[in-house]
Design brief:
about 375 residues; Rossmann fold; single chain; 12 strands
C-alpha cells in the first residue's frame, strides 16, 4: 500500500473513528507509573524524541518507558537507555494491552492512527490540539510550528511540568562494540583509517521526499572540493536501494578513488557506528542528518521544501543551508501537507560554495583536519 493511500485512509477513516471513540472517556491516573511514548514513522523523529524520554523518566520518577513504533524506526529505540520495551504497531499482540498504560504521550503530529492507538492503550493521553484526533486526548498542547521539533516535543511534557527546559543537544544513539568492529573493518578494507578526515554524505531521501534532494552533480563537486582542500575521505551512507544514487555521485567525482559507497553495506545499528566515525557529515533533510547531530558529529543539513527552523540538525555546532524558492515551506507535517513538489526546484538555489562556507565555519571552531 502506497504512502498516499495510507494517508488518505488515515485521514478519512481515522476522523470517523476518532469521533466515535471520543464518546468513551478514560480517567487519567494522577501519578502515572506505566508510561508509553508513541512515535511511528520517522527515523529522524525517533532520534529527536530520545531526550524527551530521558526527561519523562526523570520528571515522573520512573526507571523506564515503553515505546510504540513501526518496523521502520524501532531499531532506533531498541536497547537505548531507559526504554524497557518497544511495541510494534504492526503486531496484533500490542493491542491486547487495552488501557494498560497510565499515560501515553503521542508525539505524532498528524496521524489519526497514532491517536487511536494511544487512546486504546492508555488511561490518559497527551497530544497536540489540532484535528479530530484531539478529541481522543485527555490533555492537549498547542502545536508551535515556529520552533524546532525538539522543543515542540518537550511542550507535550510541559502540560504536567511547566518548568521543563529544552535540551542543549540530542542524545547519542547507542550501538554495540560488534557494530564498531564491523564498521572499522569496512573502512579499513577500503583504505580508510581513524587518522583520516572522514566526511560522511547522505545524498538520498525517502522516495516520497525526492524534492529534498540536493543535485547529485553538486554533491560530487562538494566532495571534490573537500578532498582537494582537506584531503578528505568521502563515505556515502544509505540503504541498499540508495546504493545506485550513491554510485552516480561517485562516478561524477574527479577524485572518485577517495570515496566509498557504503549504501547497503551496513545494518541500521552499524550505520549509527559508521556515521559516528565521521569527522563531518553533510546530508539532505532526512533521518541520517539527525543521527549525525545526535552522534556529536558536526553536521551540515541541506533544506528546501522543509524549514530548518523545525528540523535543522539540532545543536549549536551544527549548521543548516536554506535558500528557499517560496515564501513558506511546502512541507507542513502537522497539517498533513507532505506534497510531491519536486517541480518547484527547492534545492537549486544552494550552491557548493554555500555548503563549503558552512563547513569552514564548523572547522574554524572545531578540530581542523591535518
Amino acid at each position: 500500500m502506497g504512502v498516499k493511500v495510507q494517508r488518505f485512509l488515515d485521514r478519512v477513516g481515522g476522523n470517523v473513528l476518532a469521533n466515535v471513540f471520543s464518546l468513551f472517556k478514560s480517567t487519567p491516573v494522577e501519578k502515572p507509573q506505566k508510561i508509553l511514548l508513541v512515535n511511528l514513522w520517522g527515523m529522524g523523529d525517533a532520534v529527536l524524541t530520545l531526550p524527551l524520554i530521558t526527561e519523562i523518566r526523570e520528571r515522573f520518577g520512573v526507571t523506564s518507558v515503553d515505546v510504540l513504533a513501526t518496523k521502520r524506526v524501532w531499531k532506533i529505540y531498541k536497547g537505548q537507555p531507559g526504554i524497557r520495551d518497544v511495541l510494534l504497531l504492526e503486531d496484533r499482540n500490542t493491542f491486547r494491552r487495552r488501557k494498560y498504560y497510565d499515560l501515553v504521550i503521542d508525539t505524532e503530529q498528524y496521524l489519526n492512527s497514532s491517536a487511536l492507538a494511544s487512546w486504546w492503550l492508555g488511561k490518559g493521553v497527551i497530544g497536540y490540539d489540532h484535528g479530530q484526533r484531539r478529541k481522543l486526548y485527555s490533555h492537549t498542547v498547542s502545536y508551535n510550528d515556529r520552533q524546532h521539533m525538539v522543543h515542540t516535543y518537550f511542550d507535550l511534557l510541559r502540560v504536567k511540568f511547566p518548568d521543563v527546559q529544552n535540551p542543549d543537544e540530542l542524545l547519542k544513539v547507542k550501538y554495540s562494540k560488534e557494530d564498531t568492529k564491523k564498521v572499522t573493518s569496512l573502512l579499513e578494507d577500503n583504505g580508510i583509517t581513524k587518522d583520516d578526515f572522514i566526511v560522511g554524505f547522505c545524498v538520498s531521501t525517502a522516495e516520497s521526499c525526492i524534492a529534498r534532494r540536493w543535485p547529485k552533480e553538486k554533491f560530487a563537486a562538494l566532495a571534490d572540493q573537500l578532498v582537494a582542500k582537506y584531503n578528505a575521505k568521502i563515505v556515502i551512507v544509505g540503504a541498499p536501494n540508495e546504493r545506485p544514487l550513491n554510485q552516480e555521485v561517485i562516478d561524477l567525482m574527479k577524485h572518485s578513488n577517495e570515496a566509498l559507497n557504503a549504501g547497503g553495506k551496513t545494518s541500521v545499528e552499524q550505520s549509527l557506528a559508521l556515521i559516528d566515525s565521521c569527522n563531518l557529515f553533510v546530508s539532505n533533510d532526512t533521518g541520517p542528518m539527525h543521527i549525525g547531530a545526535a552522534q556529536g558529529v558536526p553536521t551540515v543539513g541541506l533544506f528546501g521544501p522543509n524549514t530548518p527552523v523545525r528540523y535543522g540538525p539540532y545543536g549549536k555546532k551544527n549548521k543548516a543551508v536554506y535558500k528557499p524558492v517560496l515564501s513558506e515551506p511546502c512541507i507542513n507535517v502537522h497539517l498533513g501537507k507532505v506534497p510531491d513538489c519536486e517541480g518547484h526546484g527547492h534545492m537549486k538555489n544552494i550552491s557548493v560554495d554555500d555548503v563549503m562556507e558552512e563547513v569552514g565555519k564548523i572547522l574554524a571552531v572545531g578540530s581542523h583536519p591535518n
